[in-house]
Amino acid sequence: MSAKFLSEDHLAAATEALNANDDFVGSIANIDMGIQFQVSEAPKGDISYYLKVGDGSAAMTLGELEDPDVVISSTHETALALFRGDLNTQMAFMTGKIKVAGNMAVLMMNQAVINKWAATVSEVEITN
Question: What pLDDT band is residue 89 in, cutting at 50, 70 and 90?
Answer without folding.
Answer: confident
